[in-house]
Amino acid sequence: NVPQQFPENHSLGIWVNKMRMERKKWDKGSERTSLTERKIELLESIDFIWAQNHKGEIGWERRFQEIRKFKRKHGHCNVPTKSAENRALGRWVSTQRTMYKNYMKG
Fold it and tell me: For residues 79 and 93, what is the distance between their CA atoms, to the nearest angstrom?
């Protein structure tokens, strides 16, 4: 998660911000973007965080990346909520399921 105003490497911060803007164009279906599906996959493979300055979105994106890793390792998304190792992730998964059920109920 590199902020645009990244003092150690200003050009990296600018590039990261540009990728985030390009992703917004991609998501809207714009043909005027430098991103490709392959570039998105590569960025996501290093846990690139697409959201900028939105703590909730960044937190969600971080947990989503964690659940992807968990699934790759264990082959499922049934994270135990009582396990000390993955307690926070387990609670997040539980919350996502509850929110989905509520959404489906209308």
Answer: 7
